[in-house]
Amino acid sequence: MLIKGLLYDLDDTLISRDDAFLGFTKKFFNKFINPEDYSYSVFLGFMRKSDSVTKWSAEKNLLFEELRKFVPLPESTDNYVNFFWDSIVKSVTPDERSNNHLKKLNSLSISWGVVTNGFEYQREKLKKSGVGELAPFTMISGEFGCHKPCKEIFYAAANKLELNCENILFVGDTAETDIVGAKSVGMKTAWVKMGRQYPNKQDLPDFEIDHVSDLENLLTLF
Description:
Blueprint: E1 5-8, H1 17-32, H2 40-54, H3 61-67, H4 77-90, H5 96-107, E2 111-116, H6 121-129, H7 131-134, E3 138-140, H8 141-144, H9 151-161, E4 168-172, H10 175-184, E5 188-192, E6 207-209
Parallel strand pairs: 1-2, 1-4, 2-3, 4-5, 5-6
């Protein structure tokens, strides 16, 4: 296997989506929930159940429709969705291990970039995390016109790297969008486990890692 370049997902790959989600949940609880009705720990359980169903959808109205099954929400869903994105972005913090890994790639002149599902709010996440200033390029699905696992966004990213797909390693945490999508165009894949078992018996990743910094063991393949 000759890997000449890398592509990375953003959320739960280069930054902790869960940390940002917890930040949002705390802010939401403080603003919208009466602590006499629910403790924070109980509410967090409701929010996590709702998120588990809707996490991979960019349509966050679905999150609050799910949450309404557990908690009465008197305001319009649009208000909650706007609050979600504002709070999520403000809760993003740099992952120093990830950023140090990316700095090493840059010091070695290894070609790489970021391909993330989402919309314009991803730009602010990239800025707040420090990934944006390190990345040679970033592609956001909502700006591009189709979301992973569509093949077109992977081919376009390969063109930016000026590499054939078979010489690219795609790194991501989501089987359905990152791994299946990248494999469909012939890329090698690395799945960020986060303590999980890979959910599919087909379309297995080439590597399973705990953190993107583990990829430094593969740099000898370049």
